[in-house]
Design a protein that fits this description.
Blueprint (H helix, E strand, L loop, with lengths): L2 E3 L4 E7 L4 E13 L10 E9 L5 E5 L4
Antiparallel strand pairs: 1-3, 2-3, 3-4, 4-5
């Protein structure tokens, strides 16, 4: 799975399921190649990745499903 990270990064407070409280999170957008086969042209999808700055837990959400 190929991943491309954006240069932009936003830090914000969000609920962390692991910590069980609101904590600072780093938020990135990554383009993920979901194809396991030949044509990757149509298999690239944007994901929102939120990483807890306290415990390091990472949560990914496909942006087309948001």
């Amino acid at each position: 799975m190929a991943v491309q990270e954006s240069a932009a990064r936003n830090d914000r407070e969000e609920e962390c399921e692991t910590c069980g409280r609101t904590t600072p999170h780093g938020v990135d957008i990554r383009i993920v190649d979901e194809s396991n086969e030949g044509s990757t042209k149509y298999a690239r999808e944007p994901y929102r990745i939120a990483t807890c700055q306290v415990c390091g837990a990472e949560r990914a959400q496909r942006m087309n499903d948001a």
